[in-house]
Amino acid sequence: MKKTILTVAGAFMLAVTGVCANESSTTFNDNVNLSTVSFELSSFCKAIVKGDFDTVKKLIELGEDVNQKSLGMAPIHFAARYNKTDILELLIANGADVKKRCDKGYTAKKYAELSNATEALKILKLAMKK
């Protein structure tokens, strides 16, 4: 009986504090709504990481910004990091900024070097000469 009462009381406490936490965590003190802040990788960058050239090309045709950061990195950073050379060339051909820095201060060239992505590194070096 004592365990049952404690279990029910614990469940009730969790339910009550969970509701309060949800209500208070949706906004900061300065009234910034968390629903406008994205903590997820964009669909465009997901397609780049997966190496889905056709989807990346279609999204660019539909007006996707090739320099829009997701999780602090631009699409060119993801292409360089994961050695997606065909996508890297497509991004550059469509105006991706080769010298753009991520929120950590790294360029696409640096990501290619850190990831040992030699093919991507060659493409980036050529693009930087132009």
TrEMBL record:
Which PANTHER family does the UniProt record give? ANKYRIN REPEAT DOMAIN-CONTAINING PROTEIN 60 (PTHR22677), USHER SYNDROME TYPE-1G PROTEIN-LIKE PROTEIN (PTHR22677:SF4)
Name the PROSITE patterns on file.
Answer: ANK_REP_REGION, ANK_REPEAT
Q: Does the keyword Membrane apply?
A: no
Q: What is this protein called?
A: Ankyrin
Q: Which InterPro entries match?
A: ANKRD_45/46/60, Ankyrin_rpt, Ankyrin_rpt-contain_sf
Per the UniProt record, one Pfam family is: Ank_2
User: Start-end of the ANK repeats?
Assistant: 71-103
Which keywords label this protein? ANK repeat, Signal
Signal sequence span per UniProt? 1-21
Organism the protein comes from: Flagellimonas eckloniae
